[in-house]
Amino acid sequence: MLLRYFYDENLAHASYVVGCQATGEAVVVDPMRDIVVYEELAAKENLNIVGALETHIHADFVSGSRELANRFGATLYVSDEGDADWKYQNIDHLNHQLLKDGDQFKIGNLIFDVMHTPGHTPESISFLLTDRGGSADKAMGIFTGDFVFVGDVGRPDLLEKAAGMKGTSEAGAKEMFKSLERFKKLPDYLQVWPAHGAGSACGKALGAVPSTTVGYEKLFNWALQYDDAMAFQKELLDGQPEPPSYFAVMKSVNKTGVELLKNLPKPKVLGSAGELEKLIADGHQVLDLRPSSSFGNGYIPGTINIPFNKSFANWAGWIVDYKEPLYLLLEPESIDLVFEALHSIGIDGVAGYADVSNIIQEVNQLDSYTSVSPDQAKKMIEDGEGNILDVRSQSEYDEGHIEQADHIMVGTLKNRLEEVNANKTVIVQCQSGARSAIATSILKANGIDNLVNLTGGYLKWKEELSV
User: Fold this and answer.
1) Phi-psi region for residue 40, left (φ > 0), alpha (ψ -120 to 50) or beta?
2) Is the separation of the CB atoms in 465 and 403 below 8 Å?
3) What pTM was estimated for this model as a whole?
4) What does the alpha-carbon distance between residue 238 and residue 223 come to, in Å, rounded to a whole number?
5) pLDDT tens digits, residue range 246-276?
6) Is the Isomerase keyword given for this protein (predicted)?
7) At 115, phi and psi to the nearest 5?
8) Residues in the chain where the model's pLDDT stays below 70
């Protein structure tokens, strides 16, 4: 048997290739949209990818199952649990097998047993893997998707908070408790292979190691220490981070399908600064992907800064309007990686891009913003010249914040501009300075110019000004 682990650091997403080397057949569990890495492995190991296994309808990335079906003719193995709202659609033209609790299927000498594990979502299933290529007659591991993580479990509130399905949070929490009681009965030696690691918004305390065991999680996973259902449900729902706004889009995309990557139109190269400035004047969204320090020193008015780093896909999902064309200012060598990141969360409407270094030089008048130290910010507040705007998450704000700070999480800022108190200089602040730079660019692009960015954020404030 062959087992390979693939991890997308941008989305904290894990996928797996499982192959039977005796028959040359393989499947991919919870595949990412860009399937090149699976193609390369299949070619190297002389495998034919015959299946794509999905643990549930994902909300945080675009699944690559349909890409695998198109490229390899792979069969989709997907859940048939849950009610009508959580059934896969538009798959009749694809080879597929609908799965319920207790079902079993074989790939070569590999046996997959299906376990319905609702809680994170109603249709969630897990796959128990047995390798019958040797003498084993018991499962060696379980692909849990977003059911059980290292040190955490899947959150049940996404359907309500991101997709607007009222009342599903408490129902999901109840189901999760039942699913975990079933999980506890699995043998301790069983390996656990989850679909996410630390940094994912699909839970609140995910570990950063790639795998675990049932026995280890029984001992140390907070969610498996509860015998009282009500106490567990309360703890599970408390303190969950804000779900990115794009999660609702991903749920729909993965349920109904998305255009194949090969069919997406090619974005055009913007020829001049004048062309770009006209796009901005006409209200089009333009992202500048440079580091915040470079952007702050000089940028084209009306552009929004989301630096291209590990957090890029997350913040793009929060901030980009999926329904409108998008234009990018970037370094040419990063083009492929940028498009891969955007496609992974379903942002397919990139209409054009430009080399940011070249186009900046053509612009007659650039804008900029000022950053201030904690001491300078404190003096502005004391002198009645500034208001603090904290753009961190709700949980970070609740754990501690600057006195009298207004709170608007950066991902929601574009829809809450009327709440910004701009009668004084707005001092934009986050935890360390990265998110506040994004927020500053959003405010500037929307005409709020009387502002500064707090260097080092709340951490620097505490370090320098705490008594």
Assistant:
1) alpha
2) no
3) 0.94
4) 12
5) 888 898 899 999 999 999 999 999 989 999 9
6) no
7) -125, 120
8) 162-164, 467
